[in-house]
Automatic annotation (TrEMBL):
<dbReference type="Pfam" id="PF08240">
    <property type="entry name" value="ADH_N"/>
</dbReference>
<dbReference type="InterPro" id="IPR036291">
    <property type="entry name" value="NAD(P)-bd_dom_sf"/>
</dbReference>
<keyword id="KW-0862">Zinc</keyword>
<dbReference type="InterPro" id="IPR013149">
    <property type="entry name" value="ADH-like_C"/>
</dbReference>
<dbReference type="Pfam" id="PF00107">
    <property type="entry name" value="ADH_zinc_N"/>
</dbReference>
<dbReference type="InterPro" id="IPR011032">
    <property type="entry name" value="GroES-like_sf"/>
</dbReference>
<protein>
    <recommendedName>
        <fullName>Alcohol dehydrogenase</fullName>
    </recommendedName>
</protein>
<feature type="domain" description="Alcohol dehydrogenase-like C-terminal">
    <location>
        <begin position="261"/>
        <end position="367"/>
    </location>
</feature>
<feature type="domain" description="Alcohol dehydrogenase-like N-terminal">
    <location>
        <begin position="41"/>
        <end position="155"/>
    </location>
</feature>
<keyword id="KW-0479">Metal-binding</keyword>
<dbReference type="InterPro" id="IPR013154">
    <property type="entry name" value="ADH-like_N"/>
</dbReference>
Length: 433
């Protein structure tokens, strides 16, 4: 037994407070439950200092998921290591680095899913589809809205705060770093899926499709057709302006601003007035004054009209769908142009998608769906986190993504308000009275 890797958690006893969901819907309770313990050599137990409330937590809350057991909520958390399984020791080799370096007392951020760091998918960067993948806050894995949480495959899952801040050469608050658990990498992922799609990269590179990327070596062209400046006018939309939507919008604008010799405009769409006002405040600190403005906030009908006006009714090059329901997906399909791209990171449920194969065939629309691989997105997300502390650093300011840090005592009321769109990003301090 070493100070680095111990099985202290096996013998640990005691109780903790946790936010719990009772099916079928709209039933949140703060209860006293048993503390987690080490059950596998690859486990870690974390003392949670902050936990997030995410829009995807509302799917179970609203009864949209087929859940029939009580569970501890939450999949975003930051905290301190208090117990480690026996896999953690200085001599651990041929395994992810944290198995040889993580120590009790280290501060860590956890992605919202477990990843081993060793399987085929993890090696490719597709960590959200790890063969051991598990989502925190589900019946199979208690979540982070608790005072303590067990992390399986912790050496491949966790990030040491020290490692993140040393690369950034800057210290950041826990409330800011918590955004790296899910919503900021997911926003980056939404934007990157669109911008790296071959239908979009041809425009970014200024080369006619398909000659901007892979073509067989036996194809010989005397010249590669270049696109005119007019052909490189981009129109993007972001559908859904909750916390993840703001992260996607900030990510998209930052990435587009790094591409030379293109002209772009973005319409940010949400039916909820308070969310639109929040995004207007974000844009006020985010973007330099331009005529016409690079990004415009709109409700649904205004957004449709703007896309028609800007593109002569052709549609958007790409749409980031950040809601996760069929009305948002149908809107994305409606405003995307032929040969356009829809990047969907909303957590969709059981209903079939709201269009037919014929619909997507006749528009040549490309779809990218699914869960963000947080580990792959972390370097980009961490750099953006530091760069945009005017949005991601504060709490409770008009342009701050985070609205407030609350106690578990307020959890029932906060879920109700959040469900109705009455607040933005909320964090819980499990130790606050």
């Amino acid at each position: 037994m070493t100070a680095m890797g111990t099985d202290l958690g096996r013998e640990a006893t005691g109780d903790q407070r946790a936010v719990r969901f009772y099916p079928p819907a709209y039933d949140i309770r703060v209860e006293t439950v048993s503390m987690p313990v080490i059950v596998d050599p690859d486990d870690a137990v974390i003392k949670v200092t902050l936990a997030g409330l995410c829009g995807s937590d509302l799917h179970a809350y609203r009864g949209h998921e087929e859940v029939d057991v009580v569970r501890t909520c939450g999949h975003e958390f930051i905290g301190e290591v208090v117990a480690l399984g026996s896999s953690f020791n200085p001599n651990a080799s041929e395994r992810p680095l944290l198995y040889s370096t993580l120590k009790i007392g280290d501060r860590v951020v956890s992605p919202f899913t477990v990843s081993c760091g060793e399987c085929h998918f993890c090696r490719l960067g597709f960590s959200s589809r790890c063969v051991f993948s598990a989502l925190f806050g589900t019946p199979d894995l208690p979540g982070g809205q608790a005072q303590f949480v067990r992390v399986p495959k912790a050496g491949g899952t966790l990030f040491k705060v020290e490692n993140i801040t040393s690369v950034l050469h800057s210290g950041l608050s826990d409330s800011s770093l918590l955004l790296l658990a899910d919503i900021l990498p997911t926003g980056v992922f939404a934007a990157l899926q669109a911008l790296q799609h071959p239908k979009i990269t041809s425009l970014l590179c200024g080369k006619q499709y398909p000659h901007h990327g892979f073509v067989p070596r036996y194809v010989q062209l005397e010249t590669t057709p270049n696109l005119s400046f007019d052909d490189r006018n981009f129109t993007f939309a972001v559908v859904g302006l909750g916390p993840v939507g703001i992260c996607a919008l900030v990510s998209l604008l930052d990435m587009l601003g790094d591409v030379p010799a293109i002209n772009y405009r973005v319409v940010a769409i949400d039916p909820v007035a308070s969310r639109r006002e929040k995004v207007k405040s974000v844009l006020a600190v985010l973007t330099p004054i331009a005529t016409p403005p690079r990004a415009v906030v709109a409700d649904i009908e205004e957004g449709k009209q703007l896309v028609k006006d800007w593109t002569d009714d052709v549609g958007c090059n790409a749409v980031l769908e950040v809601v996760g329901n069929n009305s948002a997906l149908l809107l994305a399909y409606e405003i995307v142009r032929p040969f356009g791209v829809i990047s969907s990171v909303g957590v969709h449920q059981a209903p079939p998608v709201p269009f037919t194969g014929r619909d997507v065939y006749k528009k040549n629309v490309s779809f990218d769906f699914g869960r963000c691989p947080v580990r792959a997105m972390l370097p980009i997300a961490a750099a953006l986190l530091l760069k945009r502390q005017d949005v991601f650093g504060g709490v409770g300011e008009p342009a701050s993504l985070i609205d407030r840090i609350a106690s578990f005592n307020d959890a029932v009321a906060i879920y109700e308000v959040f469900d109705k769109g009455g607040c933005g990003k909320i964090l819980f301090d499990p130790w606050k009275n």
